[in-house]
Cilia- and flagella-associated protein 91 (Toxoplasma gondii), 586 residues
Amino acid sequence: MGPVTRRRAWCVVRFDLKANGDSKFRSENSSDPGRGQSTIGIQSVYSERETQTVPYSPTCVVPAGHSPEELTIAHLCWEKGLPATQLEISIVQRMRQKRKIEKLLPPSTDEYSFQARASLMKEQEFREWADRERRIKELHDRRLELVRLAIKKRRELFRNMEEDVLERTRMRLSQKEAVQAIKTDAKRIKALRRMWQQRVALDSLINPQRWKAVSHSSKRASDMFAPRSMKGYIPGDPYASLQIDAPALQFIKRADTRTMLPGVDAALEATATRLRQEAALEQAERDRGNTQGLEAATAIFQLTGSQSHTVGDAGVPLKKYHIRNIRERPETPRVEEVLPEDEAVQVAAILLQRMLRGQTYQQRMFAGKQMRLDLINFLRASEQLNDAPVEDQQAQAIGETTEEAAEVLMASMQGQAIAETLDELAKELRKVEEERRIAVMVNLAERDRRMREAQESGTRQAEELLRAREDETFNRVMSLHHQTVDSYIEGILTASVEQAAKQQALVEAKLRAEQLSEVVDELEERYSNPTTIARELVTSFLLPHVQKQQLQRQLHLEQEKYSIAARYAIGESFQPLKTTFGPLFY
């Protein structure tokens, strides 16, 4: 039973207010079990300040000998396990189950209880490991799900981007297709109009009068609307064809009006002459056109008389007389569509180009101003001089003349000084050049000397190396000859020594064989005796048994030594018990 349900001593918490407004918590023990109310001071979940703090929890008094289950979750606090979630609830349930299993474990008093306890603990450990693996797998599954969601979102984003790119490409291609269709339609209309014009031209060559009447009926400036007098009709009144009312011409027909306006007759005569000339030129052009048309039609009739009357064959000879240089209209420039991600770069580049162009123009203007600054100052001075009175102009002219004379004198003096300085500098320059030429010659001579010395030293070193190599070769050849002679002499001596040793060894072997034969015969006679053989067999049977008995006796002595030491150690360990319990250990 926990501390909350026991009625041993109630914990009463009072909230007292002091006179100065301070407050404090006071806790006191009340032993009255019948008391049914208590004043408890707590802190609200939400503080009145801006900063939220951990809610207040009063201290808990646990009676001795009790371990309530609530204390196992006392470490949980706000935002650190509270409010509790499914994870905290599962942890509490596992802790309860673990405590129950620990209570059910048998004590390890005997071997059977110990084995049962070990098996139960092993099963509990397996369950814990299985639970841990399950939680790890759940965590892994959640992470995999998050990864799948991230990959899915990324694929959707890429798909949307690809769809946007495809949509922009489709729109651009559709616009291009529409523009191309419009161009094609315009070209088709243009080709149809050209074909119609060619047909009209061909028909006008074949039947000019018909198309002349049609063209005249569509032109307001033709003879149908304004007939010429050269056609054989001469009206009595030059203004009769214009259908002007007679009262309006009375002013012009009167003689007194003509006398008042002497230039009217001349103007009318000039106008009439000009009109006659224009009419004659137009008639000549028209006649020449008719003549050319008749000649072309005659040529066409002559060609079509000998060939087939197909349209294709009839159109071939027209190329001699009808040649047109048709130029196609160039394609209208258009602004290509810019992607949103490239538009900012292009705008920045355009702005930078404008700034650079502006800076370039500004630099050019400044350079031109600096180059023509003297002219600008001269113009300003001339304007100021023109505004000044005559006396000031004369004084300024005299001053300028004086300044010019002084400048000329100063320039002559400066020129003389500069000439002398330049002459001195030229002499110094020639001197320096001569010194440098001599120094270069000296350096070249020193360089040639060093090169010759280096060449001679190299030749000398090569000769020394060759001499040393030849000496080394000679020494090696001589050493080889000496070694050959030594080996030859050594071989002769070795052969002589071996031959002498062999002869001496043969002599000694013969002598030793004669001496050892007697000893061997004596030993064979001794050990071939049956008595000796029987004695050796008995000895080989008895000696292993004796050695075995000696080994057993030695092991017994060693074990007895260890037994005495163990007995002595046990007696020493029971010595305190003998002093405590007395005669029970005797």
Remarks:
- The beta strands are 10-17, 23-30, 77-78, 81-82.
